[in-house]
Amino acid sequence: MSTTPAPDNDVRAYVSAHRDGFLGELAEWIRIPSVSADPERAGDVRRSAEWLAAKLRETGFPVAEVWETAGLPAVFAEWRAAEPDAPTVLVYGHHDVQPAARADGWRTEPFEATPSDDGARLYGRGAADDKGQVFFHTLGLKAHLHATGRSAPAVHLKLLIEGEEESGSPNFPALLHERADRLAADTVIVSDTGMWAADTPTVCTGMRGLIDGQIDLYGPDQDIHSGSFGGAVPNPATEAARLAAALHDADGRVAIPGFYDGVVALTDRERELFAELPFDEESWLRTAHSHGAGGEAGYSTLERIWARPTAEVNGIGGGYQGPGGKTIIPSAAQLKLSFRLVAGQDPEKVQQAVRDWVAARIPHGIRHELDFFGATRPCLTPLDDPALQALVRAMSKAFDGAKIRFTREGGSGPAADLQDVLGAPVLFLGISVPSDGWHAPNEKVETDLLMKGAEAAAHLWGELAAGTRTAGGEEVQQ
Amino acid sequence: MSTTPAPDNDVRAYVSAHRDGFLGELAEWIRIPSVSADPERAGDVRRSAEWLAAKLRETGFPVAEVWETAGLPAVFAEWRAAEPDAPTVLVYGHHDVQPAARADGWRTEPFEATPSDDGARLYGRGAADDKGQVFFHTLGLKAHLHATGRSAPAVHLKLLIEGEEESGSPNFPALLHERADRLAADTVIVSDTGMWAADTPTVCTGMRGLIDGQIDLYGPDQDIHSGSFGGAVPNPATEAARLAAALHDADGRVAIPGFYDGVVALTDRERELFAELPFDEESWLRTAHSHGAGGEAGYSTLERIWARPTAEVNGIGGGYQGPGGKTIIPSAAQLKLSFRLVAGQDPEKVQQAVRDWVAARIPHGIRHELDFFGATRPCLTPLDDPALQALVRAMSKAFDGAKIRFTREGGSGPAADLQDVLGAPVLFLGISVPSDGWHAPNEKVETDLLMKGAEAAAHLWGELAAGTRTAGGEEVQQ
Ligand SMILES: [Zn+2]
Ligand SMILES: [Zn+2]
């Protein structure tokens, strides 16, 4: 690389100086109600894409295009480094937002952007998820150029900002496959997650995968009388319950043979680092709206939600569910299950293990059908990955040299599609905090953290370019 | 008793001679659509009660009254024997019927009474359940008087014909309590069941009892995301399933401690007699609309449905039940259970056993509520009961000396209320056969069997009067 890394204070000074202008533009974007789930907002989602493409061109991206899909449009932008051998980085985010209405409990207009009196927070749908976290990349990139004196980023930089993430990304895999050549990258940076807390900066190192599906069980051809027949024929509601109850053993482990095959175990170091996080179970339970913690024996709550595969009953139904009683043996019952997967598990193999397990447990007299809705692979970056180390260094600079800790994401998302289709490792750069209220009324973002995000992005391109040079030559122990 | 029992052929001759008139009057009754479940038919239910009371007066009953309830009216009639020390017998049946509409698959008008071409069958709603079986008592009583030359029955005869049986008899227990003095009886004869088959006359010796209720399980205060929280908090749908799955052990026995306390075991003789019945499992499965038999180990299908207590899941529900998937941990789940009880089980003790068992199984973090809808006691007459023996002799005379076998009824009904409130043993005199299609389209009754029912009733009053004389003095082995 041809330039000297700039002193940190150049980045910070630039970001601070442009804070108000940045927040003003973000507010403009928040005012576009780009709700992908609402067909009446399709025009707004398009307007949001066009607004973003224009802003990216203003930022300096030589290429900034609205990409059509079978559904709502995405935005693609590209700015190549001067150095042909620089690594290629793809930033992922989304410009669509969750639905929001004042009546849901918002104290401000959701599609206004309303600062708190002290300016520390900006309220509005998408402030954190994901417009704020996409948009800080524009400020970060300008700070990067300014502080390094470059006229192009230190990496070949691409952005792909989806328009249907809040609707389950139905057309995203197809888009990735179709545009795989233009999207090719060495590293993917997903900016659609968060940190542990404002005073505990963290980097997410992986997401769980997911398979989910439905088992239909059929017994008698019609509901039959439990007096006349009770006790002498199999009951599909009982069989659905037996399947659900047999999912876990007494230790809370998933009891399906083969389920854990290949699971990448937590390292001692990862467990130590998780344990160092200031976790308060009571406050976590409040976030979970739950009244007790419990799960796989031998693991902490954080390990259970971040690093262990699970089986959950999402729905169960069969027979009479109205008021009072009805003494029937139901004709049919249904079970909706989801399985979160972790690195090392192959969704298709787990699907087969579930199929085999279910088939072996269905008794004579019951017919069953099993359908899977989809499969999302897990992703995980090892702690010693050079690109992850570069991200940690960039975050640490933004957070005044603070120790950067590691989290994972228990959910599952398009990150895995990016990893799979592009064949590139996925890193997560996010500065949102749990109190930001994703998908809830009164979503907000901490404006100081938006600036930290911009700073981290400003540092990241240089760190990645440098990290790539040294990759393999330096043993990083974290 | 002052009279000599008449030769059988007098009864048969009388019944045969009055067959056509009897069927004509029954048809008139069937044309009154006394559907208790349909509020728009309330007037027809009343018309049915008044029609029946008038017919009973015509038959000769000095007392025949329409009795009001909080719901639809019942009919009460009384005709005392000349002998003050004669036993008192109460006949129970119902004059209301199940709903029926041509569109449900009826080949004839359900509220017409349509004979088959050969006259062997009479089609119409209520033909078997229960108008035909109530009405044969009028013909039987007249035959009894004619054949014995009596001017009053050999027993103090009472009839109580309910108007809400097909709606769950909501006001029946209250009516029994209110009118207990007028209803007092030594023996109750329920004519609202059937026989094994036209060529296998049987007498039912008991009904199972019933408790049913609902368990509500509450987990998170709202549905929560299975990605963010899955594997770390208890899931109420899983817990509902675990309860349902734990109801039975591997042998199909109910696994609730104390459930079997007091259960009157089948005697070897009862088991032998059940085993002698010409039971065809394939045809039984067709009746059950089921594709496999199964239940408590060590018992036959008939034993399971007639003589063993059971636990059944009538309904289960929780979480997402719409199309496709939704990756949630549901906030709540619900389980509707019913337990059939057999002689020796106390419904209230079983309810307590269920409460204790559920409470002990609910994990930390789940709240539950358990409500029972009701409790019906089981009833069972020992094979050596003198009144049962009298009924067997009466049936045998009607069926040309055929061996009368024994069945039980797996369902639960007002018979138990009669037994409990009146403190009298309950016997079952019914001639309906499984193909009669109770509660189904194209309900019918076999007209020859109606005549057998009338003959059995005609013989029964003398047998009961005689049986009561010899009760305790004669050891009957059947
Ligand atoms: Zn998002
Ligand atoms: Zn009936």
TrEMBL record, chains A, B:
What GO terms describe the biological role, i.e. biological process, of this protein?
proteolysis
Which Gene3D superfamilies does this chain map to? 3.30.70.360, Zn peptidases
Q: Pfam families, per this entry?
A: M20_dimer, Peptidase_M20
Q: Which domain of life is it from?
A: Bacteria
Start and end of every Peptidase M20 dimerisation domain? 206-363
Alphabetical keyword list? Hydrolase, Metal-binding, Protease
Q: Which GO terms describe its molecular function?
A: metal ion binding; peptidase activity
Looking up PANTHER family in the UniProt record yields: BETA-ALA-HIS DIPEPTIDASE, SUCCINYL-DIAMINOPIMELATE DESUCCINYLASE
The protein here is known as Dipeptidase
Source species of the chain: Streptomyces coryli
